[in-house]
User: Which sequence fits this backbone?
């Protein structure tokens, strides 16, 4: 989204000068000047004109790629970073940027390959690269298994960016850099994007629920420069919104943003950071906006205001000192005299080393926000969290179709829609990186989850069937919720829950003497008569008992974790999370083919890879050890020299976990 330029890399400063025409005699000096002034829309065109007359160079191609990245035009960025890497002297960071652009465009296989390539090039970033490669696998899974939600691109979207809707009166207020249509309107251009400055617009529905005409909010709410990302009080008489003003830049020796390739403006150039402004509707007009008490535009940004349902907590995004990452979410509480308390960080459950921004509050108080630091599909993803202030439960990705490879943000829920309808913003599929507003509507069919609890046989008995377990306590959680429905398995191990199709649930089973087990399910129900079936397998909590980890496969003679194996290992990760005192040995076994030494080496590499993956998912390394047994623990007669079928050999090729504690 083009808002990334203004509302995300807060530690950058922004040149707000007018764009200037590029003459037909464009040369490198002019192009460099445009680039240094952050007029990227014109700079990229100027550099491309140079390519019509000159041989391409790494420096020019790289600046074109960086320009498109900074403008958030990911399709162009992906193309130009591919050209950058054709030069032998290209820096490794370009591989990372290429991967990021590919992931934003939904090219997940390519992005995964590039992340792994970057991790091999820059060993210090290898763990991060592996996580991003896993995110590509997860994104493909979510894409193939979308939530049952219908999206509609709204008819009032323009050819420029439209985003961050918020309910107001009988319609919505949103942010846009569309061309102003009023007679004599000044469409001053923002040099970074080559588009008009952002303004707030109001759109009302008539009695037939049809949209009327888009109207800009009047002055003094809208000002000359950027205005956007607003929220209104419950009575609609107070608006909190984000604004930028020109500020003189105090030149520093270095650019404080390590992710930025843009140089700071020249000394004393007018720049901008985000501020929150507050205006009230009195005597049939908006009052002159007052700055939020904690604005500090010469040092940091504050923006994206959001109010709790009772209006007593104000959330916002900022890059003020002391945070966890590039931008964090903060909150202030309303004092008795109507003032706001000092900002407090929302904590590291919500905030990451990346960017958290665009907070909104659903009618039930659920926090929604966007982040590129939590596991996502690319760009900004939408997340939810239950809690308040600095106390939050686990953060949940909203998955597809809410999220895509692009930027997804600014979600709101219709108070009358019971959480099933609303609007959000996204730049998915945009050739130019512009944002659109989408409406969404969920359609879910009620049905029944029919389950069976069984005891998994130990590895030495794996060919026997698991026996049903009675009196297991089952808890059914809707994903992201902490309130559970409770049931118990009967004498035959059977249990059931009423559910809805297309909703993600967590089923957690527990019984004394057994490890707690959680399973994630998202049933597809076509009618109320459908039965979604689930088998929940529990393991005895007994030291030295071993169990096979099913469906762990490796390519021939290789130890890399395949996507299908990663999904199975994720189940083991969940088991370790559910049972925090447990310690295990993860072992890998081969069949008897190949030499003893080779099989021993290969099994150890495979066990190491599996353990490394589990640790990368947040499990303490002290809770898990890797052990390769090669062909030393065959489970049947198929030793060296014995003629066996492939199925018999497969029985020996396995991964197990053994309880150490």
Assistant:
């Amino acid at each position: 989204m083009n808002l990334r330029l203004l509302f995300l890399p807060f530690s950058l400063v922004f040149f707000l000068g007018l764009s200037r025409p590029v003459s037909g005699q464009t040369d490198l000096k002019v192009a460099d000047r445009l680039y240094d002034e952050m007029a990227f829309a014109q700079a990229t065109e100027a550099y491309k004109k140079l390519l019509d007359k000159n041989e391409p160079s790494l420096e020019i191609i790289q600046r074109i790629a960086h320009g498109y990245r900074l403008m958030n035009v990911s399709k162009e960025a992906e193309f130009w970073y591919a050209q950058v890497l054709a030069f032998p002297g290209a820096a490794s960071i370009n591989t990372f940027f290429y991967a990021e652009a590919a992931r934003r465009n939904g090219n997940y296989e390519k992005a995964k390959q590039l992340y792994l390539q970057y991790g091999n090039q820059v060993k210090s970033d290898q763990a991060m690269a592996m996580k991003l490669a896993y995110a590509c696998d997860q994104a493909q899974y979510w894409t193939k298994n979308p939530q049952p939600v219908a999206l509609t691109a709204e008819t009032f979207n323009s050819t420029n960016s439209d985003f961050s809707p918020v309910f107001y009166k009988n319609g919505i207020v949103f942010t846009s850099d569309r061309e102003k249509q009023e007679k004599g309107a000044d469409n001053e251009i923002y040099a970074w994007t080559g588009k008009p400055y952002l303004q707030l617009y109001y759109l009302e529905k008539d009695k037939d629920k049809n949209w009327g005409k888009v109207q800009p909010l009047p002055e003094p709410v809208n000002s000359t420069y950027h205005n956007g990302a607003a929220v209104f009080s419950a009575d609609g008489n107070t608006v909190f919104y984000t604004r930028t003003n020109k500020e003189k830049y105090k030149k520093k020796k270095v650019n404080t943003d390590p992710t930025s390739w843009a140089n700071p403006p020249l000394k004393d150039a007018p720049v901008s950071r985000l501020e929150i402004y507050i205006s009230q509707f009195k005597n049939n007009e908006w009052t002159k906006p007052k700055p939020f008490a904690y604005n500090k535009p010469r040092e940091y940004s504050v923006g994206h205001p959001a109010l709790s349902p009772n209006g007593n907590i104000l959330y916002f995004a900022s890059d003020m000192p002391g945070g966890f990452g590039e931008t964090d979410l903060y909150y202030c509480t309303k004092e008795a005299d109507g003032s706001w308390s000092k900002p407090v960080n929302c904590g590291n459950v919500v905030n990451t080393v990346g960017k958290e921004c665009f907070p909104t509050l659903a009618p039930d108080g659920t926090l929604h926000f966007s982040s590129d630091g939590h596991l996502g599909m690319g760009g900004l993803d939408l997340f939810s969290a239950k809690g308040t202030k600095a106390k939050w439960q686990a953060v949940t990705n909203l998955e597809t179709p809410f999220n895509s490879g692009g930027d997804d943000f600014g979600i709101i829920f219709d108070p009358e829609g019971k959480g099933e309808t609303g609007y959000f913003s996204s730049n998915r599929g945009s050739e130019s990186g512009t944002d659109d507003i989408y409406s969404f509507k969920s359609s879910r069919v009620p049905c029944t989850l029919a389950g069976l609890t069984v005891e998994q046989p130990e590895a030495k008995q794996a060919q026997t069937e698991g026996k049903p377990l009675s009196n297991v306590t089952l808890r059914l959680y809707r994903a992201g919720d902490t309130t559970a429905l409770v049931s118990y398995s009967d004498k035959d191990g059977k249990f059931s829950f009423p559910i809805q199709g297309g909703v993600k649930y967590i089923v957690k089973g527990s019984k004394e003497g057994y490890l707690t087990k959680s399973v994630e399910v998202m049933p597809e129900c076509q009618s109320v008569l459908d039965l979604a079936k689930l088998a929940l397998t529990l393991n005895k909590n007994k030291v030295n008992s071993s169990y096979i980890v099913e469906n762990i496969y490796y390519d021939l003679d290789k130890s890399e974790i395949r996507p299908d194996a990663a999904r199975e290992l994720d189940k083991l990760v969940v088991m370790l999370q559910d049972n925090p005192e447990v310690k295990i040995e993860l072992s890998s076994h081969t069949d008897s083919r190949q030499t003893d030494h080779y099989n021993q080496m290969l099994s150890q590499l495979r066990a190491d890879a599996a353990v490394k993956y589990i640790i990368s998912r947040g499990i303490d390394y002290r809770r898990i050890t890797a052990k390769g047994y090669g062909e030393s623990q065959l489970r049947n007669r198929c030793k060296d020299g014995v003629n066996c079928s492939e199925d018999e050999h497969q029985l020996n090729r396995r991964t197990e976990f053994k309880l150490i504690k």
Remarks:
- Residues 596-616 form the longest helix (21 residues).
- The first strand starts at residue 149 and ends at 153.
- Residues 1-25, 250-268 have pLDDT under 50 and may be disordered.
- The chain is about 20% helix and 30% strand.
